[in-house]
Amino acid sequence: MAFVIVLAGGSSDERAVSERSGAAVAAALAKHGHTVKQINPATGLEAELLKQCDVVFPVLHGKGGEDGEIQKQLDELGIVYVGSDVAASELCFDKWVYKQFLRDKGLPVPNGEIASADNIWGFSLIAQPFVLKPVDGGSSVDTYIYRGGTIDKTFISDIFTRHPKLLLEELIEGSEITVAVLGNQSLPVIEIIPPASGEFDYENKYNGKSQELCPPQNINAEVQHQAQELALRAHKLTGCRDFSRTDIMVDAMGQLYILETNTIPGMTDQSLFPKAAATAGISMDKLCDQLVQMALARKTT
Protein backbone atom coordinates (compact mmCIF):
# COMPACT_ATOMS: atom_id res chain seq x y z
CA MET A 1 0.00 0.00 0.00
CA ALA A 2 1.07 3.60 -0.59
CA PHE A 3 1.25 6.85 1.35
CA VAL A 4 -1.11 9.16 -0.53
CA ILE A 5 -1.58 12.89 0.03
CA VAL A 6 -4.99 14.11 -1.11
CA LEU A 7 -5.14 17.79 -2.05
CA ALA A 8 -8.60 19.30 -1.64
CA GLY A 9 -10.23 22.63 -0.89
CA GLY A 10 -8.17 25.39 -2.44
CA SER A 11 -9.39 28.93 -2.97
CA SER A 12 -11.60 28.70 -6.08
CA ASP A 13 -15.37 29.11 -6.27
CA GLU A 14 -15.59 25.32 -6.22
CA ARG A 15 -13.66 24.78 -2.98
CA ALA A 16 -16.71 23.47 -1.08
CA VAL A 17 -17.26 20.72 -3.65
CA SER A 18 -13.51 20.03 -3.70
CA GLU A 19 -13.51 19.50 0.07
CA ARG A 20 -16.31 16.97 -0.27
CA SER A 21 -14.54 15.24 -3.16
CA GLY A 22 -11.32 15.11 -1.16
CA ALA A 23 -13.02 13.61 1.87
CA ALA A 24 -14.65 10.93 -0.28
CA VAL A 25 -11.36 10.06 -2.01
CA ALA A 26 -9.44 9.98 1.27
CA ALA A 27 -12.03 7.68 2.86
CA ALA A 28 -12.02 5.36 -0.16
CA LEU A 29 -8.23 5.10 -0.22
CA ALA A 30 -8.07 4.45 3.51
CA LYS A 31 -10.71 1.75 3.11
CA HIS A 32 -8.53 0.11 0.48
CA GLY A 33 -5.59 0.08 2.89
CA HIS A 34 -3.58 3.13 1.85
CA THR A 35 -2.12 5.59 4.34
CA VAL A 36 -3.79 8.92 3.59
CA LYS A 37 -3.33 12.53 4.60
CA GLN A 38 -5.66 15.25 3.29
CA ILE A 39 -4.22 18.75 2.82
CA ASN A 40 -5.80 22.05 1.79
CA PRO A 41 -3.22 23.83 -0.41
CA ALA A 42 -4.88 27.17 0.38
CA THR A 43 -3.09 27.02 3.75
CA GLY A 44 0.24 26.31 2.05
CA LEU A 45 2.06 23.31 0.61
CA GLU A 46 4.84 21.77 2.66
CA ALA A 47 7.39 20.57 0.12
CA GLU A 48 9.13 18.25 2.57
CA LEU A 49 5.87 16.56 3.54
CA LEU A 50 4.91 16.14 -0.11
CA LYS A 51 8.27 14.52 -0.84
CA GLN A 52 7.59 11.91 1.84
CA CYS A 53 4.51 10.55 0.10
CA ASP A 54 4.41 8.00 -2.71
CA VAL A 55 1.82 9.85 -4.77
CA VAL A 56 -0.33 13.00 -4.62
CA PHE A 57 -4.02 12.82 -5.51
CA PRO A 58 -5.25 16.33 -6.45
CA VAL A 59 -9.00 16.72 -6.10
CA LEU A 60 -8.95 20.48 -6.62
CA HIS A 61 -11.76 21.82 -8.79
CA GLY A 62 -11.47 25.14 -10.61
CA LYS A 63 -8.58 27.59 -10.51
CA GLY A 64 -5.47 26.35 -8.78
CA GLY A 65 -6.39 22.73 -9.46
CA GLU A 66 -7.63 22.07 -12.96
CA ASP A 67 -5.73 24.91 -14.63
CA GLY A 68 -2.31 23.26 -14.38
CA GLU A 69 -1.05 25.39 -11.51
CA ILE A 70 -0.79 22.66 -8.87
CA GLN A 71 0.53 20.22 -11.49
CA LYS A 72 3.33 22.62 -12.32
CA GLN A 73 4.31 22.88 -8.66
CA LEU A 74 4.31 19.11 -8.25
CA ASP A 75 6.39 18.66 -11.41
CA GLU A 76 8.96 21.12 -10.08
CA LEU A 77 9.19 19.09 -6.87
CA GLY A 78 9.50 15.85 -8.83
CA ILE A 79 6.37 14.38 -7.25
CA VAL A 80 4.15 11.86 -9.02
CA TYR A 81 0.46 12.74 -9.05
CA VAL A 82 -2.87 11.40 -10.24
CA GLY A 83 -4.42 12.97 -13.31
CA SER A 84 -3.52 15.08 -16.31
CA ASP A 85 -0.26 16.97 -16.69
CA VAL A 86 0.19 20.73 -17.01
CA ALA A 87 -0.40 20.97 -20.77
CA ALA A 88 -3.64 18.96 -20.82
CA SER A 89 -4.93 20.74 -17.72
CA GLU A 90 -4.32 24.18 -19.21
CA LEU A 91 -5.91 23.21 -22.52
CA CYS A 92 -9.10 21.79 -21.05
CA PHE A 93 -9.47 24.50 -18.42
CA ASP A 94 -9.77 27.34 -20.93
CA LYS A 95 -13.12 26.57 -22.56
CA TRP A 96 -12.47 28.90 -25.51
CA VAL A 97 -9.04 27.46 -26.35
CA TYR A 98 -10.43 23.96 -25.81
CA LYS A 99 -13.39 24.60 -28.13
CA GLN A 100 -11.17 25.87 -30.93
CA PHE A 101 -8.77 22.95 -30.45
CA LEU A 102 -11.53 20.36 -30.79
CA ARG A 103 -13.08 22.16 -33.77
CA ASP A 104 -9.70 22.14 -35.53
CA LYS A 105 -9.51 18.39 -34.88
CA GLY A 106 -12.92 17.88 -36.48
CA LEU A 107 -14.88 17.18 -33.29
CA PRO A 108 -18.39 18.69 -32.98
CA VAL A 109 -18.81 21.69 -30.66
CA PRO A 110 -21.53 24.38 -30.42
CA ASN A 111 -20.95 27.71 -32.15
CA GLY A 112 -19.50 30.28 -29.80
CA GLU A 113 -17.76 33.60 -29.28
CA ILE A 114 -15.69 35.27 -26.57
CA ALA A 115 -17.70 38.16 -25.13
CA SER A 116 -16.96 41.08 -22.85
CA ALA A 117 -19.31 43.56 -21.19
CA ASP A 118 -18.49 46.01 -24.00
CA ASN A 119 -19.28 43.82 -27.01
CA ILE A 120 -21.71 41.12 -25.91
CA TRP A 121 -24.82 42.82 -27.29
CA GLY A 122 -23.30 43.00 -30.76
CA PHE A 123 -23.19 39.24 -31.35
CA SER A 124 -25.91 37.60 -33.45
CA LEU A 125 -25.97 34.67 -30.99
CA ILE A 126 -27.80 36.96 -28.54
CA ALA A 127 -30.84 36.87 -30.83
CA GLN A 128 -31.35 33.15 -30.21
CA PRO A 129 -31.27 30.83 -27.19
CA PHE A 130 -27.76 30.94 -25.73
CA VAL A 131 -25.52 30.01 -22.83
CA LEU A 132 -23.12 32.45 -21.18
CA LYS A 133 -20.45 31.00 -18.90
CA PRO A 134 -16.93 31.65 -17.58
CA VAL A 135 -14.12 30.34 -19.77
CA ASP A 136 -12.27 29.16 -16.66
CA GLY A 137 -14.86 27.84 -14.25
CA GLY A 138 -16.93 24.77 -13.49
CA SER A 139 -19.91 23.37 -11.56
CA SER A 140 -22.08 25.82 -13.56
CA VAL A 141 -21.01 28.69 -11.29
CA ASP A 142 -21.94 32.07 -12.89
CA THR A 143 -23.64 30.40 -15.85
CA TYR A 144 -26.63 32.06 -17.53
CA ILE A 145 -28.97 30.10 -19.82
CA TYR A 146 -31.39 32.01 -22.06
CA ARG A 147 -34.24 30.07 -23.69
CA GLY A 148 -36.42 33.00 -24.74
CA GLY A 149 -38.34 35.98 -23.39
CA THR A 150 -36.64 38.88 -21.64
CA ILE A 151 -32.89 38.69 -21.17
CA ASP A 152 -31.78 39.38 -17.61
CA LYS A 153 -29.18 42.04 -18.45
CA THR A 154 -28.69 42.94 -14.79
CA PHE A 155 -27.67 39.37 -13.97
CA ILE A 156 -25.34 39.26 -16.97
CA SER A 157 -23.74 42.59 -16.01
CA ASP A 158 -23.15 41.19 -12.53
CA ILE A 159 -21.36 38.12 -13.96
CA PHE A 160 -19.04 40.39 -15.93
CA THR A 161 -17.93 42.08 -12.71
CA ARG A 162 -16.33 38.74 -11.74
CA HIS A 163 -15.30 37.52 -15.19
CA PRO A 164 -13.98 40.07 -17.74
CA LYS A 165 -14.40 37.51 -20.54
CA LEU A 166 -17.20 34.98 -20.92
CA LEU A 167 -17.94 32.23 -23.44
CA LEU A 168 -21.12 32.99 -25.38
CA GLU A 169 -22.41 29.78 -26.90
CA GLU A 170 -25.46 28.68 -28.84
CA LEU A 171 -27.86 26.69 -26.67
CA ILE A 172 -28.19 23.13 -27.93
CA GLU A 173 -31.69 21.95 -27.07
CA GLY A 174 -31.89 18.26 -26.26
CA SER A 175 -30.54 15.79 -23.75
CA GLU A 176 -27.42 16.32 -21.68
CA ILE A 177 -25.16 13.35 -21.10
CA THR A 178 -21.73 12.85 -19.63
CA VAL A 179 -19.10 10.22 -20.33
CA ALA A 180 -16.32 9.34 -17.89
CA VAL A 181 -13.02 7.94 -19.11
CA LEU A 182 -10.90 5.77 -16.82
CA GLY A 183 -7.43 5.01 -18.13
CA ASN A 184 -8.13 4.58 -21.82
CA GLN A 185 -11.64 3.19 -21.55
CA SER A 186 -14.99 4.96 -21.59
CA LEU A 187 -17.38 4.14 -18.74
CA PRO A 188 -21.18 3.88 -19.09
CA VAL A 189 -23.01 6.99 -20.25
CA ILE A 190 -25.01 9.02 -17.73
CA GLU A 191 -28.11 10.96 -18.80
CA ILE A 192 -28.78 14.13 -16.82
CA ILE A 193 -32.37 15.32 -16.37
CA PRO A 194 -32.67 18.58 -14.39
CA PRO A 195 -35.82 19.30 -12.36
CA ALA A 196 -38.75 20.49 -14.46
CA SER A 197 -38.55 23.95 -12.91
CA GLY A 198 -34.83 24.51 -13.37
CA GLU A 199 -31.52 23.90 -15.10
CA PHE A 200 -28.63 21.59 -14.21
CA ASP A 201 -27.01 24.52 -12.37
CA TYR A 202 -24.77 24.65 -9.31
CA GLU A 203 -27.67 24.20 -6.89
CA ASN A 204 -29.36 21.38 -8.78
CA LYS A 205 -26.07 19.52 -9.26
CA TYR A 206 -25.72 18.98 -5.53
CA ASN A 207 -29.20 19.11 -3.99
CA GLY A 208 -30.27 15.71 -5.30
CA LYS A 209 -33.18 17.09 -7.35
CA SER A 210 -31.73 16.25 -10.78
CA GLN A 211 -32.08 12.76 -12.20
CA GLU A 212 -28.81 11.12 -13.22
CA LEU A 213 -29.67 7.97 -15.12
CA CYS A 214 -27.06 5.32 -15.71
CA PRO A 215 -27.82 3.62 -17.99
CA PRO A 216 -29.80 6.35 -19.80
CA GLN A 217 -33.50 5.87 -20.51
CA ASN A 218 -33.91 8.32 -23.39
CA ILE A 219 -30.67 7.82 -25.36
CA ASN A 220 -30.47 4.85 -27.69
CA ALA A 221 -27.59 2.41 -27.59
CA GLU A 222 -26.02 3.63 -30.85
CA VAL A 223 -25.87 7.25 -29.69
CA GLN A 224 -24.44 6.11 -26.35
CA HIS A 225 -21.70 4.23 -28.19
CA GLN A 226 -20.95 7.29 -30.34
CA ALA A 227 -20.74 9.43 -27.20
CA GLN A 228 -18.32 7.01 -25.56
CA GLU A 229 -16.08 7.07 -28.64
CA LEU A 230 -16.28 10.88 -28.82
CA ALA A 231 -15.36 11.31 -25.15
CA LEU A 232 -12.42 8.95 -25.52
CA ARG A 233 -11.22 10.86 -28.59
CA ALA A 234 -11.43 14.14 -26.69
CA HIS A 235 -9.57 12.56 -23.75
CA LYS A 236 -6.74 11.35 -25.97
CA LEU A 237 -6.50 14.37 -28.28
CA THR A 238 -6.23 16.81 -25.38
CA GLY A 239 -3.59 14.64 -23.72
CA CYS A 240 -5.63 13.79 -20.64
CA ARG A 241 -4.45 10.87 -18.55
CA ASP A 242 -5.83 8.62 -15.81
CA PHE A 243 -9.35 10.05 -15.79
CA SER A 244 -11.60 12.71 -17.28
CA ARG A 245 -15.29 13.38 -17.80
CA THR A 246 -16.69 14.92 -20.97
CA ASP A 247 -20.08 16.64 -21.05
CA ILE A 248 -22.06 16.28 -24.28
CA MET A 249 -25.40 17.52 -25.64
CA VAL A 250 -27.57 15.35 -27.88
CA ASP A 251 -30.03 17.28 -30.06
CA ALA A 252 -33.39 16.04 -31.38
CA MET A 253 -31.69 14.55 -34.46
CA GLY A 254 -29.20 12.58 -32.40
CA GLN A 255 -26.29 14.90 -33.25
CA LEU A 256 -23.65 15.14 -30.53
CA TYR A 257 -21.97 18.35 -29.37
CA ILE A 258 -19.08 18.39 -26.90
CA LEU A 259 -19.39 21.03 -24.19
CA GLU A 260 -16.27 20.49 -22.09
CA THR A 261 -13.84 17.98 -20.63
CA ASN A 262 -13.19 17.98 -16.89
CA THR A 263 -9.67 16.88 -16.00
CA ILE A 264 -10.50 16.52 -12.27
CA PRO A 265 -14.12 15.33 -12.16
CA GLY A 266 -16.15 15.61 -8.98
CA MET A 267 -15.63 12.66 -6.64
CA THR A 268 -18.32 13.28 -4.00
CA ASP A 269 -20.95 10.68 -3.12
CA GLN A 270 -23.29 12.50 -5.55
CA SER A 271 -20.76 12.97 -8.36
CA LEU A 272 -21.11 11.57 -11.84
CA PHE A 273 -17.72 9.91 -12.27
CA PRO A 274 -18.08 7.51 -9.29
CA LYS A 275 -21.65 6.77 -10.42
CA ALA A 276 -20.46 5.74 -13.89
CA ALA A 277 -17.70 3.62 -12.36
CA ALA A 278 -20.18 1.92 -10.02
CA THR A 279 -22.39 1.03 -13.00
CA ALA A 280 -19.31 -0.58 -14.58
CA GLY A 281 -18.83 -2.62 -11.39
CA ILE A 282 -16.01 -0.52 -9.94
CA SER A 283 -16.52 0.49 -6.31
CA MET A 284 -15.30 3.85 -5.02
CA ASP A 285 -12.34 2.38 -3.15
CA LYS A 286 -11.28 0.31 -6.16
CA LEU A 287 -11.69 3.33 -8.43
CA CYS A 288 -9.46 5.52 -6.30
CA ASP A 289 -6.92 2.71 -5.92
CA GLN A 290 -6.81 2.23 -9.71
CA LEU A 291 -6.08 5.94 -10.16
CA VAL A 292 -3.28 5.77 -7.59
CA GLN A 293 -1.80 2.71 -9.30
CA MET A 294 -1.82 4.51 -12.67
CA ALA A 295 0.17 7.36 -11.15
CA LEU A 296 2.55 5.01 -9.32
CA ALA A 297 3.28 3.23 -12.62
CA ARG A 298 4.75 6.48 -13.92
CA LYS A 299 7.10 6.58 -10.95
CA THR A 300 9.03 3.58 -12.18
CA THR A 301 9.16 4.54 -15.86
Description:
With 301 residues, this protein is of the alpha+beta class. It has 3 domains: 3-83, Rossmann fold (3-Layer(aba) Sandwich); 91-109 and 173-284, ATP-grasp fold, B domain (D-amino Acid Aminotransferase, Chain A, domain 1); 112-170, Dna Ligase, domain 1. Helices cover 35% and strands 21% of the residues. The chain has 10 helices and 13 strands. Strands 8, 9, 10, 11, 12 and 13 form a 6-stranded antiparallel sheet that branches. A 4-stranded antiparallel sheet has the order 4-7-5-6, with helices on one face. The longest helix has 18 residues, at 15-32.
Spatial shape: globular
The name CATH uses for the topology of the largest domain is D-amino Acid Aminotransferase, Chain A, domain 1
Give the CATH H-level superfamily of the largest domain: ATP-grasp fold, B domain
In CATH, the architecture of the largest domain is: 2-Layer Sandwich
What is the helix content? 25-40%
One letter per element, helices H and strands E, the order comes to EHEHEHHHEEEHEEEEHEHEEHH
Major beta sheet summary: 6 strands, antiparallel
Top CATH class of the largest domain: Alpha Beta
